[in-house]
Design brief:
The protein contains seven helices and 13 strands. The protein is of the alpha/beta class. The protein has one domain (2-232): Ribonuclease Z/Hydroxyacylglutathione hydrolase-like (Metallo-beta-lactamase, Chain A), CATH 3.60.15. The chain has an eight-stranded mixed sheet with strand order 1-2-3-4-5-6-7-8. A five-stranded mixed sheet has the order 9-10-11-12-13, with helices on one face. Helix 4 (185-195) links the parallel strand 12 (159-163) and strand 13 (213-216). Helix 4 packs antiparallel against helix 5 (233-255) and helix 5 packs antiparallel against helix 6 (260-274).
C-alpha cells in the first residue's frame, strides 16, 4: 500500500506498508523515515519528523486508523526526529535514552512551556515495551551519531529501525556537539550486530534468524509495496564493515603523518574499491571528526 497525505504548505508524508499482514508502517516526510505501530489502544510513533509535520503525519495515519498517537519514541535528540513531539495532543508517554533527554533539555525548542515535550521515560541499556508478537525492544550501545542513539526492534516481526545509526548509504554524520563519536561508531555497530538477537516465536528451539527488514533513517525506499525486499540484516552488516574500514583508513593515515587532502583521497579510493555502492558525500566532515578524536 502506498498513499500520500498532505497538510498546509508543501508538507507531504508518504505511507508505506512493510508487510500487508502486519501493523507496522513506514512514514516518510522531508527525507526522513519514521515508523508507526498500530496498537490496540493507540499509535506508537517512532520519531516525529520536524516541527510542522504533525498534521501531515496524522493525515497519513488516518488512512489506517482513527486511534490517537499515544506513545512517542525518540531515537535521538535532533529536531528532525523529535521536533514534532508537541503536535500529537493525546500523547501520554515519550520515551528516549537518558542521554537524549539530557541533550533535549538544553535545546531551545524544549524550553519554557515546551519542557512538557521532553521524554517522560528513559532507560540506560535496554527497555522492552508490550508483549508477545507486538513486543518492542529499545537498545543502546554507546555514542555514535550522537551520544543517545537507540535501535528500535520488533523481534517477533523481524523489523529493526536503525534511525541515524544507519542514516544513509554514505559515511555517517557525527554530531560531536551532541556527544557523537567517530572512533566509537564501529564499536557501537559491532555491539548491535552481536547482541541483538531475533528468535521468531513461530520457530521452535533456539534458532536465530536475521532480520527480514531494517529501516534506515534517510535512505529512500524502493518504488514497490509492501517493502518486503528492502534492506536486510546483511545490509546492516555491510554498512558496519564500511564504517569500520573508513575509520581504520583514517587512523592508519594519521599515524603515517598524511595530510588532510591525502587522507581524503585514501578514504575515497578505499570506498571506490571496497564499497562502490556507497556515496562519497560527507568524507571531509567525517575525516575531520575522526582526526580530532585521534589527536585529543
Amino acid at each position: 500500500m502506498a498513499l500520500l497525505a498532505g497538510q498546509e504548505s508543501d508538507k507531504l508524508v508518504r505511507l508505506e506498508s512493510l508487510d500487508v499482514s502486519d501493523n507496522v508502517y513506514l512514514l516518510r516526510g522531508g527525507g526522513t523515515n519514521i515508523l508507526a505501530f498500530i496498537a490496540e489502544d493507540g499509535v506508537v510513533l517512532i520519531d516525529t519528523l520536524g516541527a510542522g509535520w504533525g498534521k501531515a503525519t496524522r493525515r497519513a495515519l488516518d488512512n489506517l486508523t482513527s486511534l490517537p498517537v499515544t506513545t512517542i519514541i525518540n531515537t535521538h535528540a535532533h529536531t528532525g526526529h523529535s521536533g514534532g513531539n508537541g503536535e500529537f495532543p493525546l500523547v501520554t508517554e515519550i520515551i528516549a535514552h537518558e542521554k537524549t533527554k539530557a541533550q533535549m533539555r538544553e535545546m531551545p525548542v524544549f524550553q519554557g512551556e515546551n519542557v512538557r515535550l521532553l521524554p517522560t521515560r528513559t532507560f540506560e541499556e535496554k527497555l522492552t515495551l508490550l508483549e508477545g508478537f507486538d513486543r518492542i525492544e529499545l537498545h543502546y550501545f554507546g555514542p555514535a551519531h550522537t551520544d543517545g542513539d537507540i535501535l528500535v526492534v520488533f523481534p517477533e516481526k523481524g523489523i529493526a529501525y536503525l534511525g541515524d545509526l544507519f542514516g544513509r548509504m554514505s559515511l555517517p554524520r557525527i554530531d560531536r556537539d551532541f556527544g557523537g563519536s567517530g572512533l566509537a561508531y564501529p564499536l557501537v555497530l559491532a555491539r548491535a550486530l552481536d547482541e541483538i538477537k531475533y528468535f521468531p516465536a513461530f520457530v521452535r528451539g533456539p534458532e536465530v534468524r536475521t532480520f527480514d527488514r531494517v529501516v534506515p533513517g534517510h535512505v529512500l525506499p524502493p518504488a514497490q509495496t509492501p517493502l518486503l525486499r528492502w534492506l536486510k540484516w546483511d545490509d546492516f552488516k555491510r554498512y558496519a564493515d564500511f564504517v569500520t574500514n573508513a575509520v581504520e583508513v583514517v587512523r592508519e593515515a594519521k599515524s603515517r603523518g598524511r595530510t588532510e587532502d591525502q587522507i581524503i583521497d585514501l578514504v575515497k579510493d578505499s570506498i571506490a574499491v571496497e564499497f562502490p555502492s556507497y556515496q562519497l558525500d560527507g568524507v571531509g566532515a567525517f575525516i575531520e571528526t575522526v582526526s580530532l578524536e585521534i589527536t585529543e
